[in-house]
Amino acid sequence: MKKLDLKDKTVWITGASSGIGESLAIQLNQMGAKVIASARRTEKLSELKKQSPNPHDLLTLPMDITNPNSIEKAVAQTKQLDRLDLVIHNSGISQKGLVIENEMEVDRKIMETNYFGTVALTKSIMPIFLEQGYGWFGVVSSFAGVMGIPGRSAYSASKHALHGFFNSLRAENMDCELNISFILPGFINTEITAKGLCGDGKPYGKVETSHQLGISASECADGIIKGLMKKNKRIVVGKKFELLMLTINRISPEWGHYIIKNHPMRRMRNVKSKINRTLYFKKNSVVKQ
Predict the structure, then answer these.
(1) How far is CA 160 from CA 7, 31, 40, 156, 165, in A?
(2) Edge-to-edge strand ranges of the sheet holding 58-60
(3) Nearest residue to 102 (alpha-carbon basis) of 204, 209, 244
(4) Read out DSSP for 62-87?
(5) Is the torsion defined by CA of 203, 209, 212, 213 positive or negative?
(6) GO molecular function terms here (predicted)?
(7) I need a labelling partner for 115 at 20 to 30 A (CA). Which of 147, 168, 182, 189 fits?
(8) 199 near 103, Cβ under 8 Å?
(9) pLDDT in tens, 133-164
């Protein structure tokens, strides 16, 4: 299959101020793509433009994915461009905590950012794609988007929801040239777990060991771009064990569940989880003293 040349393509990346999004913006800009980089933190977007190889081909577009007015303004600006080839939905926040520990407000906040925000932006972009006769969404999901991960219930639910939404969108538009690529990163060494919300809504504050041992954001972006150039509908990026884990889960979800349940790192966390549950019940007077 002939590889797609992303040079001169217009690519809009959300969540571009750090991590995977930032690395995608820099690498695509270096390849000659016209990049639109969006995020809430304007100072980070300014830094991104300064360090980009071709700053004249990188447009910074501040946007809050959870704010409808912010989305409307950003989309209005993109309509001024000649075309929009690819939108990479990368905005999102993580979550850490057992189901029983998570306050409902945390679940709602995760869904508002990871799912509803992405859906709102997609709905605003679709008229552009339909008018120009083609379009492409790169949806950054996660391993947690195709399998249940302990301590990630809200995050996993938000990513599962994206798969359902975009598969339906693809089915509704089979007569037009609408491409959708699901991007499934494994453990990536970024700040996503440090910024992830605990059960009480406060940031976790540190990068989890599993992510510290993962591949870099730059390596992840490189793998994603290679998958996009092949027009893959499913792009999996991570270490060999993680890729094997995903394959096993796809063939046999029961075996995948068994491996997750008995993973050494999972066993190490069991003690901490039991302590947390005990403290939770005591705090909420569920367990009689």
Answers:
(1) 32, 32, 24, 6, 9
(2) 58-60, 34-37, 10-13, 86-89, 134-140, 177-185, 234-237
(3) 204
(4) ---TT-HHHHHHHHHHHTTSS---EE
(5) negative
(6) oxidoreductase activity
(7) 189
(8) yes
(9) 999 999 999 988 888 888 899 999 999 999 99
Q: Tell me the pairing of strands 34-37 and 58-60.
A: parallel
Longest dimension (CA), the chain: 68
Cβ neighbours of residue 158 under 8 Å, at least 6 residues apart? 92, 110, 111, 113, 114, 115
Contact of 61 with 255, CB cutoff 8 Å: no
> In the numeric block, which tokens belong to residue 242?
């993680």
Residues designated as active site? 155
The CB-side HSE value for 132 (13 A sphere, CA atoms) comes to: 15
pLDDT in tens, 103-131: 999 999 999 999 999 999 999 999 999 99
Q: Where residue 34 falls among pLDDT bands split at 50, 70, 90?
A: very high
Give alpha helix (H) positions in 96-234: 104-111, 117-132, 153-172, 192-195, 209-212, 217-229
Please name each of the domains of the chain with its CATH number. Answer: 10-253 (3.40.50.720)
Q: What confidence category does residue 288 fall into, taking pLDDT thresholds of 50, 70 and 90?
A: very low
Q: Which two tokens mark 76?
A: 């209005």
- Cβ neighbours of residue 162 closer than 8 Å, sequence gap 6 or more: 89, 114, 115, 118, 139, 141, 145
**Distance in angstroms (rounded) separating the CA atoms of residues 27 and 218:** 8
